C-alpha cells in the first residue's frame, strides 16, 4: 500500500516563524509522531517544546501555494498559514507581505461570485414579474379608457 503523508510545519508560537517543514512523503512511509520529530530533527531538539506549535497538512494541501510562494509563516493569532508571493512587477528585493493562501482567496471569490450571480438572477426575475404586472395593469387601464369612450 502506498501511503501519502502530508507535511508538518513546526513554528515559533510567539512570532509564527517556521522552524521546520517536514515536507510531504509518499510510498512505503510511516507517519512520525511529534515526539519522534523532536528526537529526530536538530532544529526541534534545540527548542523548548512549549514554545513550538505544529500544523499538520493533508497530502497535497496548498501544493500550488507552496509552489508559487517566496515565503510562508503561521499567523500567531489565528494559527493559520500565511504565504508571501513574489510581485512580478517589482525587480528589487521586497519585504514579504503575508496573506491567506491564494487558493483559499480564489475559492472565497468564486463563492462570492456565485452568490452575486444568484442574487442578480433573482433580481432579474423579480423585475420581470414587476414588468409583467405593470404591462397587465396598463392593458387593463387601456381597456377601461377605450371602453369609456
Amino acid at each position: 500500500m502506498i501511503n501519502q503523508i502530508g507535511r508538518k510545519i513546526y513554528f515559533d508560537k510567539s512570532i509564527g516563524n517556521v522552524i521546520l517543514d517536514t515536507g510531504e512523503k509518499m510510498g512505503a512511509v510511516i507517519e512520525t509522531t511529534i515526539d519522534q520529530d523532536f528526537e529526530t530533527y536538530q532544529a526541534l531538539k534545540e527548542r523548548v517544546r512549549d514554545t513550538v506549535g505544529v500544523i499538520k497538512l493533508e497530502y497535497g494541501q496548498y501544493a500550488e501555494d507552496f509552489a508559487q510562494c517566496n515565503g510562508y509563516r503561521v499567523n500567531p493569532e489565528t494559527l493559520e498559514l500565511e504565504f508571501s508571493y513574489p510581485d512580478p512587477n517589482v525587480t528589487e528585493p521586497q519585504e514579504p507581505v503575508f496573506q491567506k493562501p491564494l487558493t483559499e482567496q480564489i475559492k472565497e471569490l468564486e463563492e462570492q461570485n456565485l452568490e452575486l450571480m444568484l442574487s442578480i438572477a433573482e433580481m432579474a426575475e423579480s423585475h420581470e414579474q414587476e414588468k409583467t404586472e405593470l404591462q397587465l395593469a396598463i392593458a387593463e387601464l387601456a381597456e377601461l379608457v377605450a371602453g369609456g369612450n
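Residues 2 and 149 are 88 Å apart (CA to CA). Residues 102-149 form one domain.
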